[in-house]
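Reviewer has doubts. Consider these tokens.
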Amino acid sequence: MTDTQHTWSAAESARYRAAGHWQGVTFGARLRQGATEHGGRVALVDGDRRWTYAELDSEADLVAQGLRGLGIGRGDRVVVQLPNCAEFVLVWFALQRIGAVPVHAMPAHRRREIGHLVRVSGAVACVVPDRHARFDYRELMRSVRAEHGPGRSPRTVIVVGDPGQESGFVPFDELRSAPPSTADAPPVPASDDGGADPSDVALLLLSGGTTGLPKLIPRTHDDYAYNARACAEVCVLDTETVYLAVLPIGFNFAFACPGVLGTLMAGGTVVVAPDPSPQTAFALIEREGVTLTSLTPPLVTHWMDEAASGSWDLGSLAVVQVGGARLPEEHARKLGPALGVTVQQVFGMAEGLINLTRLNDPEDLVCATQGRPLSPDDEILVVDADGRPVPDGTPGELLTRGPYTLRGYYRAEEHNRTAFTPDGHYRTGDVVRRLPTGHLVVVGRIKDQINRGGEKIAAVEVEEQLLTHPAITAAALVGVEDERWGERTVAFVVCSGPAPGAREVAAHLKERGLAGYKTPDEVVEVPGLPLTAVGKVDKAALAQQLLRS
């Protein structure tokens, strides 16, 4: 699958190749290279299960053959909605091996979000667990298929675990023992990547979503490999690196900043944590000699509290990255001493641009900024409301373009017209201050988006769903500063008759198929919503009203 409408110019592509950013190697071929260079080294650990690089490469071949037996091939999109487990990595590389395109979905997504991803991507298949965190994903898939109907729903659902009796549901383990291909499904080609080109779209990530449901972000083999490799270089990864995947693997931060991909490209070991609790993570750090991990701010205080118990040996852990939301400076200053680690702040986006503090940065920069751009070819503009550059130290909107920042969302022509400047800079919607060192300090957002502990919530989407409740006539979702989550969500509602409580609202939104993390933390009834001078809901006034109460 190649999206040529929104891509880098020929001159830019040539420049990025000449600079060595783009290396012209597909992910399927990279895995084969890893097996050649690091064959006997441990690549992946999930509980008691371990794969060397050679075994991971061989397993990807087996799963790829099974996928081809299901009629999946080059350019086909496959929604992958798995929790942290080895199967995510196995199926991801198997898809790369046949030139298919994984669409990263989060475990918390439900019918509304998954249905949207299926529609926009045109996915031919989905990969899900049977159950996870007391939720039955097979039932989710049944409802998605019923909603879309024959011909428009995924023809195949691959289930890690028990698929049940549903037609078209295939157990993942069956892929690993697939019979030889038939004439309808020719053998896996010797090219290691199903004939994919390095400039092809290799995967589709999800935007934070500021206008409702998430947009799809096309990332190519060339640009995404550079993203992971450059992050690995900044973090000084090598064959002795042991990376603990605590955050959801499908999350860009945990997958390629440097995450799973960067670690594997450096010849290190990826350890999968089945849940983000400090007890689970600390046990794995002790057992596997973990050297690097990534957290979001809400996890930081829990990890510091658990470390204070003195019950764990965390001596191997050298670096803890924190990203997904802004880390309060006071927590940044406490985290390093609490865990005995170097703290690295990471501010980035699935659309591309990644900023990181460097491991040798002074403490003040590490604790009070969100890092500086990854690449020497990241082009950064900080502009005022009229698009004019502002001096360093002055807040403005962050615009960017570069060798790993997208030039257009997938199948979103109308949105692309406003999301990018005429010369190809991506409008991030983030308000930042740039220091003379190049480090950025995140001040806020222009977009109406709430960042609750790294989970991006589009206010308009939740507001629309709140209005489907029979008692609610008007609604506004507001993010309010919160010590634990960074921001918590408060729904201000105008009602006809008795106002629903938070539990009733949560039950209603769950019935509507909304992901649980989008449910408001608090519901406040108001007689009316205040308006600005131009007739828009004044959310700043609502937030102030909450502070005064």
Notes: The two ends are 54 Å apart (CA to CA).
